[in-house]
Amino acid sequence: MRPWISLLLAAAVAFAVTELGRNLYRPWVRQNAVNDFGLADSVGSVGGAAVTVFLLVAIMGRGRATSLGGATGAAVSALLYEFLQPSLRSGTFDWNDVVGVVIGSIVALSTVWYIWLRASPTQTSARAE
């Protein structure tokens, strides 16, 4: 399977898991007063960082180096956004969200690296489709 298809599938899975977390897991945690160390409140940051990395790399990544560089840039951008939210008046700062972005980014970067590691040499060149 071509790397960009794998990355699009990874983005779709990450999006689905994030939405399940928001719509099923978070209400269940709150209803049952479960202490999950803030995961329920940060599930959007975890999944959002992963989806951002996967989509950006799938769209722009034409090779291993470009993909890994783009993935790193997207991860850093997501982290910076968490710190800039109060200044941009788009949200509030929460350390749990910062940790969530770091976790989501590490998982996404590891997945991107793995997808390119498994790609055959003919699949690592530019998309011809």
Shape, principal axes of CA atoms? globular
Give the rounded overall mean pLDDT: 89
Give the low-confidence spans: none
The tally of beta strands, per DSSP, is: 0
Task: List strands and helices in order, with pairings.
Blueprint: H1 3-31, H2 39-60, H3 64-88, H4 95-118
Helix pairs in contact: 1-2, 1-4, 2-3, 2-4, 3-4
Q: What's a concise summary of this model?
A:
The protein has 129 residues and is an all-alpha fold. It has helices at residues 3-31, 39-60, 64-88, 95-118. The chain starts with a helix and ends in an 11-residue tail after the last helix.
Which keywords apply here?
129 residues, single chain, globular, mainly alpha, 4 helices
Q: Could you explain how this protein is built, in words?
A:
This protein has 129 residues and is an all-alpha fold. It has one domain. The chain is 78% helix and 0% strand. The chain contains four helices and no strands. It has helices at 3-31, 39-60, 64-88, 95-118. Helix 1 runs antiparallel to helix 4 (95-118), helix 2 crosses helix 3 (64-88) and helix 2 (39-60) packs parallel to helix 4. The chain is globular. The two termini are 13 Å apart. 31% of the residues are buried. The mean pLDDT is 89.
